[in-house]
Amino acid sequence: MKADSAPGIALPPRLRLFARGFLAACLLLLFACQPLPKPTVEVMPAYEALFSQSRGWIGADAIYSVTLAPGRTLWLFGDTFVGSIEDGRRRDAVIVNNSVALQTGLRPDAARIAFYFGSHGDGQPAALIEPADGRGWFWIYDGIRTAGGLFLFAVQIERTPDTSVFGFRLIGNWLCRIENPDDAPDRWQIAQKRLPWSTGGGEDQVLFGSALLTADRFLYIYGARDRQIEGRLQKSMIVARVRLDHLQDLDRWRYYADGRWSPSYHEALAISDDVANEYSVSFLPQLGKYVLVYSESGLSPNILARLADNPAGPWGRPIRLYRCPEAGWDQRIFCYAGKAHPEVSMQAGELIVTYVSNATDLELLEADARLYRPRFLRVRFAP
Hints:
Helix content is 9%, strand content 50%. The chain is mainly beta. It has a single domain (38-382), classed as Tachylectin-2, Chain A (5 Propeller). The strands form six sheets. Strands 13, 14, 15, 16, 17 and 18 form a six-stranded antiparallel β-sheet that branches. Strands 2, 3, 4, 5 and 6 form a five-stranded antiparallel β-sheet that branches. Strands 1-25-24-23 form a four-stranded antiparallel β-sheet. It is globular, with a radius of gyration of 21 Å. The relative contact order is 0.14. Mean pLDDT is 90; it is low at 1-11, 13-18 and 27-33.
């Protein structure tokens, strides 16, 4: 019998912390000694064709997916081009800050898809969902359909004096509830709830909604924490969990903190470093593992995966799934937003993965309509 489990015996806090750290180190060493599964990756032109339009919605980033019903998938986008494409160029295009699409059917060559965004009073395109407090805009993150409706996480963003494509900052994190998700998105009734995390560009910044996973009767809500450590920004993966029917009750959320679940988000500790704000966590039964998919350090042509036996990790060594070729077309092009979509997988043992290529020059995005749209990959792991 272990000393810290014997009746009437309790280890001092410092010794308990040492024991947890020693166990974590042993688990990481075990992962390091295990052979990694080898992925095979192929592009999916049929899916890319499904998202190729010449008028209306003509490209977007972010790209999350939610199952609304069997054979009915909701796609969620961030900044979106609305306009037309002629001779491979975007024409008369404007950018709105979020949009969605409804896909009916799983096979992309036979599926139907409809795109939705909002409209201003003068008929000009607008974001589908705008912040209730009127400040900045929303980028939609992950979501889930429940008996209580459709829940979407959103990050609230505003401009900074920086005039580059990176001239924005996070100012809030919200949970949106759509009580009538079976209606067309332009008829949704949306309630918004601001979440109390520390945002606004301080030295400790937190967001949740980067990825969602149901397991062990819980909803695991993944996020990111930014910290300035010795003058360097460190981005870490964090996680909370709650019973699915208690999602809106923040008092019931618990945050993973070095082997225990704390009631305070301030105690949420990193479960992986150098991740992105956007990523995915899925369970792949063929491997018997949880799979984290993300773009390396957020902005990178490399799409990586890590494996774990439990939703909170520990996560194994990175496996490179793919190197995005668009990054080699022009030095102004960068890639990001790598994530998996188990909702639309059609075969056992596969993951459908998306990413986006962007550019630091808006004129390049307008001139080359191959950029700034979903790219689709089929990934299979061989044990």
